[in-house]
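Here's what a typical entry looks like (Prenylcysteine lyase domain-containing protein):
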Amino acid sequence: MVRMEPRGLTSQEETENDDGDFRLRRRHPLTFSMPPLFLLLLLSSIHASAADDICIVGSGISGSSTAFFLTNYTAPISAQLRVFERRDRVGGRLATVSVAGDTFEAGGSVIHPRNLHVRRFADLLGLAARDDGEGDDDWLGIWDGARFVFSTLPPPPPGSSWLRRRLHALLNSLLLLRRYGLSLFRMDSFAQEMLKKFLLYYNDFESRPVFDNVEDMLKWSGLYGLTQRTLEEELIDAGLNSQTISELVTVITRINYGQSVSISGLAGAVSLAGSESGLWAIKGGNWQLAAGLLKTANATLHLQEGIDSISDAGDYYVLKSNKGHEYNCTVTVVATPLDEVNITFTPPVSIPPRKMQHTHATFVRGLLNPKFFGLSSVSDIPELIGTMELPDIPFSSISVLKKRNQHDMTYKVFSRAKLDDSLLAQIFSTREETIRIDWPAYPHYHAPEDFAPIILDGKHLYYVNSFESAASAMETGAVAAENVARLIISRLPLGLRASPLLSSEKRCRWSS
């Protein structure tokens, strides 16, 4: 993790890298031709910054991607790139949790095979795919609060032959087909049509405009209409039957977005795509993507320093932090949802009201209680329990993260509200360790969606997370960040890099 803090007004800056080593980074020499009193005042405020700084608020995938694209697409610039993070770690909603010595994803968990930016980031940073099998649950049970209305087959024993595993997959496909019929293919076609349009955001620069508002960005790709109707409306028009929507589709949206099929169509389509095969994650945690991008961008990272206010000072913005420091920035990028952070803007900015959907992730080392599910044995409980949209069901999903033996497992429970100990005592027969995390994970989607501006003030105050009202995922954050970086470059005299690390030509090759 990069940790860089200003240590004084010198011509060099000492910085710490991931290994705890220090290096010297050359900065522009300072020429002192000012009155001594002014010089003393300047030296007494070592956290004041030059007015040509570019500042990013938030170190999650949106903020780190913005930093990366800005430095990757431009020639070396004299501006200092600062990234502010109010927590003590980078990654935003990408984080891990440790249970019994094992590490699991606590936030954004999976990456789709056609998430082309994130794929390239991982390759560029030398990050390996996780190989521990988390997220590979294929024993699905759909619970209605009283019984399992549908279940796939239990997985074959470890070490089973290729033929047995293929036969198992075939039988599960037949079970799904028997229950849901042609709606399975229509559901897949709906998700694939969305992905086909989304892939347009990887086109080369000559055929892909820079967008200054989300509406035009979505209309250009043909995705805007999906944000104006509910997922349920879209799927009915696509020919899906009511059983598929109320069971299978609902399970997927409750797991991925903690919401029902009344979410907007684009968010729903992204959710359906997130249930496909081939999903993967970064070994050691997806947060490493953000950390690596910030390091590659040579960003000055201010950990545990949140921004309290952003004021327009004419040719630059004054950012005041919760540590009492001020930073002068010609460009300011807000890369965190403004819905639950208290940043004061002067003059005020106007964005549509938006609620964030909180997902409570509860990690439990212990054993599920089969009687709670109307079963006689733990071995009868599916490894992924999805739930229907019914008022008396207290959780969205339960999944097995690791099975040490028949009496010792680690589970992840998603719910819309905190699960208290009395309820957990009913769901689990034993609990050795319990960890609770409350995430303002994504917007509460509704149709028609209304979008905040990308440019908040008509000048150089940008908001990456405005795109999140269309859909929220690691890749959508990266796509929105690339557009903001290109927008900044198009509006400032920044020279383009001759051979960026992430070129549009390479992106085209990935999609083939």
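The chain has 13 helices and 19 strands.

More examples are in the samples folder.
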